[in-house]
Amino acid sequence: MDCIFCKIINGELPSKVVYEDDHVLAFHDLSPQAPTHVLIIPKKHISTLNDLQDEDAALVGRLQLTAARLAKEFGFAEDGYRVVMNCNEAGGQTVWHIHMHLLGGRALTWPPG
Ligand code: 5GP
Ligand code: ZN
């Protein structure tokens, strides 16, 4: 599978892991856009949000719960933070394995560009 995030999951590519369980991996983004910028991904390869099936509902919930838990661990849960999932070109997606961005540690503006 020619997917960089699958390669990170199976250890072919290095990453700075912050959380891992049977279903989810979280690691620091290579190009951080905030003092803390973590990517939270399912270990199951799913290319885009458009490919999600009903059977993936719990998995998506795990991504969100992992983000909330990591925000507490990083210490910015109360100040506030952002989670983002980009879909396809117009949404800004550049890696075709779904991922949740967790950004925190600075004030974030809205709307995004
Ligand atoms: P997207 O634009 O698809 O929403 O987000 C992809 C993210 O993956 C970007 O923030 C980019 O910096 C990050 N990224 C791309 N390649 C790698 C990599 O090999 N390792 C890590 N840790 N992050 C990556
Ligand atoms: Zn993949």
Automatic annotation (TrEMBL):
Domain spans labelled HIT: 4-113
Superkingdom of this protein's organism: Bacteria
PROSITE patterns in alphabetical order: HIT_1, HIT_2
Active-site residues, as the UniProt record annotates them: H99
GO molecular function, one term: catalytic activity
A family per Pfam: HIT
SUPFAM superfamilies: HIT-like
Residue span of motif Histidine triad motif: 97-101
Stretches of the chain forming a coiled coil according to its record: none
Record protein name field: Histidine triad nucleotide-binding protein
Organism placement in taxonomy: Bacteria, Pseudomonadati, Pseudomonadota, Gammaproteobacteria, Oceanospirillales
